[in-house]
Specification:
With about 500 residues, the chain is an alpha/beta fold. The strands form four sheets. Strands 6-7-8-3-9-10 form a six-stranded mixed β-sheet, with helices on both faces. A hairpin with a 2-residue loop joins strand 11 and strand 12. Helix 12 runs parallel beside helix 14. The chain is globular and about 70 Å long. The termini are far apart. It binds adenosine-5'-triphosphate and magnesium ion (MG). Adenosine-5'-triphosphate binds next to helix 1 and helix 14. The site of adenosine-5'-triphosphate has 19 residues, from helix 1 and helix 14.
Length: about 500
């Protein structure tokens, strides 16, 4: 039986049609993936279903009843919960308060005693297998914990249809496995899920059926068991898709960046030399220290011991400004927390870092900026109507591309990219890998921190695997494969050798 039917949904923003006559059917007790490139209209379709934005045309039937005019309170009451792509928690409130903020009358704040709310939150989180203290402030949680809390909030509300828009971007592999086990259990109990993800392995591990959108139009629907990743990528991207290997071996230059027994919060005694033009991947399970190391070298986290040199010269001073002056640029992970300046336009967001760096230059030419932006927009395939629009009018993946452009713009010789393809579709990922390789060919040194082994294989000359704050293995390009990287990142090698 179908729990949801959306028929002929159309929507335009400022005269631009972003959904054209789209159909979507969700069965009871299934996990249904919506696939599509960045800007294809996935989040917008979900915003229409839940009443966040109004549709121009179309019909919605939920559990046999038409929803004439969806609004957020109405669809929540009907049992539709939406876990947004960007987190929606109240950072200054406690975990249990966020849980009880759901609109169900029996859960209303105040109707329940504080102690009881805490006890119920604790029992619920424990039953889910989520390790979060109900009394903690949301702002104190790790990114992965916040994401799990956001999902727990929707589950707490006992929805019949749950929408998960890229729910795993901040989760480590273990957290993902645990989340998926919970989702499967609920699915088997009859709950339906709409799942949006750009990670093919997740789609195949979790979902029963799929719907593909391209440029706001319905393209295909089917059973996941009857297709493969290549075929889905082709449906999403169209005939232009190529999954070809992009890696090219290059001649590397002299020493670009060198770390000597560097220690800081989350990492210890890391020594490493990266050559000019090299692409070095850093990887490890979340908490392995690789991201913290990057942030510390960039000056965003303190260094406790050890030294950093750039081009053979010790880094003068500490802090982000000193790092940027030495030619280091960094794209941080988790765009919502670290990158988006929501009140600014796309163009202003793009130029933020360059302006910080060149604060002494009073006049910056709008025209020159626009010209450079247009070039980057083309290279990165950014889907935006006008660079004067607010950055939040972009789809999630296109926001990520703007931040990538921001750092490419600073002209730094050493680029740190922390989880750069978060939320980026398969087609654009391939373009970004090409771009990383050509930047390296032009002499840029690139460090990329990622959990995606496929990504490492495509671009990296070497891969530094971290475990528990230490660099435990440097693998050359030929030795990078799923099995080897996992062995070292879980420290299975040492356990076996011991
Ligand atoms: N509030 C808005 N104002 C103007 N344009 C918008 C708004 N919301 C979405 N759009 C546009 O609608 C199109 C579809 O965006 P949507 O967010 O649905 O894409 P998506 O498929 O979720 O992509 P992604 O994978 O990058 O998250 C994009 O071109 C986007 O810029
Ligand atoms: Mg989206």
């Amino acid at each position: 039986m179908n729990i949801l039917e959306m028929r002929g949904i159309s929507k335009a923003f400022n005269g631009v049609e972003v959904l054209k006559n789209v159909d979507l059917t969700i069965e009871e007790g299934e996990i249904h993936t919506i696939l599509g490139e960045n800007g294809a209209g996935k989040s917008t379709l979900m915003n229409i279903l839940t009443g966040v934005v109004p549709m121009d045309r179309g019909r919605i039937i939920f559990r046999g009843q038409p929803i004439e005019r969806p609004t957020v309170p109405l669809t929540e009451k009907l049992g539709i919960a939406f876990v947004h792509q960007e987190l929606n928690l109240f950072p200054t409130m406690k975990v249990y308060e966020n849980l009880f903020l759901t609109k169900e009358p029996t859960h209303r704040l105040g109707a329940l005693k504080k102690r009881e709310m805490i006890a119920r939150s604790r029992a619920f989180l424990e039953a889910l297998g989520v390790e979060i203290d109900p009394n903690a402030l949301v702002s104190e949680l790790r990114m992965g914990q916040k994401q799990l809390l956001e999902i727990a909030k929707a589950l707490f509300f006992e929805a019949k249809l749950l929408i998960l828009d890229e729910p795993t971007t901040a989760l480590n592999n273990e957290e993902i496995d645990r989340l998926f086990a919970i989702l499967r259990r609920l699915r088997d109990g009859g709950t339906s899920f709409i799942f949006i993800s750009h990670k093919m392995p997740e789609i195949f591990a979790l979902s029963d059926r799929y719907t593909v959108l391209r440029n706001g139009a319905f393209i295909a629907q089917g059973r996941v068991a009857e297709t493969d990743a290549e075929a889905l990528a082709r449906l999403m991207v169209g005939p232009a898709y190529t999954g070809a290997d992009v890696y090219r071996r290059r001649t590397l230059g002299g020493e670009a960046l060198s770390l000597d027994r560097l220690s800081g919060p989350g990492f210890r005694d890391v020594s490493l030399t990266v050559r000019k033009g090299e692409i070095l991947a850093l990887t490890g399970l979340q908490g392995s220290g690789s991201s913290e190391l990057m942030q510390a070298v960039f000056g965003a986290l303190p260094v406790e011991r050890g030294s950093i040199s750039v081009g053979g010269k010790a880094l003068a001073g500490r802090g982000i400004h000193a790092a940027m002056k030495a030619g280091i640029a960094m794209l941080p992970a988790n765009r919502k927390e670290n990158s988006v300046v929501p009140d600014m336009t796309i163009l202003e967001n793009t130029y933020l870092s360059e302006h910080t760096l060149s604060a002494r230059r009073p006049h910056i030419s709008r025209r020159a900026e626009q010209k450079k932006f247009d070039a980057l927009k083309k290279t990165l395939n950014i889907k935006a109507e006008s660079s004067a629009n607010p950055v939040l009018s972009l789809s999630g993946g296109n926001q990520q591309k703007v931040f990538l452009a921001r750092w490419l713009n600073t002209g730094g010789d050493i680029l740190f990219l922390d989880n750069p393809t978060q939320g980026i579709d398969v087609g654009s990922k391939a373009e970004i890998y090409q771009l990383i390789l050509s930047l390296a060919e032009s002499g840029k040194t690139i460090l990329i921190n990622t959990l995606e082994i496929g990504e490492i294989q495509k671009v990296a000359d070497r891969c530094a695997v971290f475990y528990d704050g230490r660099l435990i293995k440097l693998l050359p390009h030929e030795a990078i494969d799923e099995h080897t990287v996992m062995m070292y990142s879980t420290n299975a090698v040492e356990t076996m050798e011991a």
